[in-house]
Amino acid sequence: MKTFAFTRMIAPGLLLATAACSLGGGDPLANAEEAFAQRDYHAARLELAKALKETPGHPLAVLLQAKLNFADGKLDPVRATLRQNERLVAELPEGRLLMGEVAHLDGLHEQAIAHLREVLKAYPGHGQASTVLAQSFDATGEKAEAFATIRPIADRATASPQALALASRLADSTGADNPYRARRTLQRDGEYVALLRTADRALSNDENEKAAAQCDTLRARDGDGDPLVLNNAAVALDRLGRKGEAFSLAQRAHALTPDDPQVQDTLGWAMLRAGGNKARALSLIRSASNAVPGNLKIRWHLANALAENGQRAKAKRLIANIREFAAPQQRAEFDRLLARL
């Protein structure tokens, strides 16, 4: 009988490196998880059926079946699965997340809060867990706690309309500054979201001309005030050597979402590459690295910023710590920097 390795829920910024997973490999559970992540629920069910046939009762397969039912709005089968497998599911962060979501929908907000706090202990800053936790705090009348929970999520360039709406309402109810209201007015229809995804894939594949063109299209479609579009455009333009333009767009993205570590990193790197204030660039990139210490790209930028600020010993130590996790091409870049140091 085939066995499956346990997988872990990944929070934003905690992964050192990711590899694309294409369907059709030899592991049906991995294929099902990948299809689910891409919201191809039909393919996920087909692959999951194969996985359950090979290893009936596998905890990750059982959990994925519950997640698919949850995505379809079939809450009764989800509740039944959670009752029958409570101890097993509670050991998995994704299981805790699902338990928290169901408890919140059932109006059991104290239970939801307990489950979601456990998720966030393991994965601080997890977007969905934070959003549902904030909603549960809000439902119990803990407005300040709710706003403190959703604010870091809403401050990200990638904040969902749901997170922005919740943050905007809670900011008003607690008397806090409300920069989220303006961001909510961005029109993100289906075509806009599709363009965002295309630009993101192009960046991931190092197709920077294509990514820059997609971002130009998005900016013309009311995306000129969208920090995600501005940030991605800055990344693409920097890679194309258009450093001044990249720096300008990175500044605008940072003005909208100054606490987003990805945006901090983009601005710091663009500033460094454009010959700007080296100390300020280091401060920005260090702040980003402290927020997401497992992000290999940001730590690579930090090594460069340290070197540019004359802190060569620290740069060397940092490279030594991250080199083993890098892909061959990245290692070559690390080695070139080490040679200069």
What report would you give on this structure?
With 341 residues, this protein is an all-alpha fold. It is built from 20 helices and no strands. It has helices at 28-37, 41-54, 59-71, 75-84, 86-90, 93-105, 109-122, 127-139, 143-154, 161-174, 180-184, 190-204, 208-220, 227-239, 243-256, 261-273, 278-291, 296-308, 312-322, 328-340. α17 (278-291) runs antiparallel to α18 (296-308).
Properties at a glance:
341 residues, mainly alpha, 20 helices, disordered N terminus
Helix content: over 70%
Strand content: under 5%
- C-alpha end-to-end distance: 53 Å
Main beta sheet: strand number and arrangement?
A: none
Structure annotation, total helices: 20
Rg computed from alpha carbons, rounded to a whole number of angstroms: 22 Å
> How many strand elements?
0
Structural class: mainly alpha
Overall shape = globular
Order of helices and strands: HHHHHHHHHHHHHHHHHHHH
**Segments where pLDDT lies below 50 for 5+ residues?**
1-24
Mean residue pLDDT: 85
What would a concise description of this structure say?
The chain is built from 20 helices and no strands.
